[in-house]
Amino acid sequence: METVIGTIAGALTSISMLPQLIKVIKEKEVQPLSPTMIIVLMAGVALWVVYGIMKSEWPIIISNSFSFLVNGLLLIYYYILKE
Amino acid sequence: METVIGTIAGALTSISMLPQLIKVIKEKEVQPLSPTMIIVLMAGVALWVVYGIMKSEWPIIISNSFSFLVNGLLLIYYYILKE
């Protein structure tokens, strides 16, 4: 039951990040992004992954790995488009 | 140990949300916000709080409650400024 709720929770929080990524890719506009905050967020989600691994909780591991990936892509785009 | 990592993780992911809230309040500009995505995100973090309560994991409960609050404020600002 917890796993079902965790999976839905992770899916919803993951889905909510995609429009920003799509917007940045489509409009090639990174002005609203702050690289410092993306790095802080990535450090946070990386620690959530560690937490999930220590507790063997898959919903936490998967949703935070996905978040790490999406924010990593945003950061890469930020530096590509800034050049 | 897990609690320490979870607390740091929660603090980092929470801190990373604040600049957006501050920016919206200061600049009174909500254009980059999507209310649909804020609602999806709030539904997701609400379920993370339920998940945290079911597993009695405080770092998850606290950081997601904080996220729910910040996004609730963003949503309220969105509708105030849209009027």
Automatic annotation (TrEMBL), chains A, B:
Superkingdom: Bacteria
Pfam families: MtN3_slv
GO CC annotation: membrane
UniProt keywords, alphabetically: Membrane, Transmembrane, Transmembrane helix
Chain segments annotated as transmembrane: 37-54, 60-80
Molecular function as annotated in GO: sugar transmembrane transporter activity
NCBIfam families in the cross-refs: SemiSWEET_2
Record's protein name: MtN3 and saliva related transmembrane protein
Species per Swiss-Prot/TrEMBL record: Sphingobacterium paucimobilis HER1398
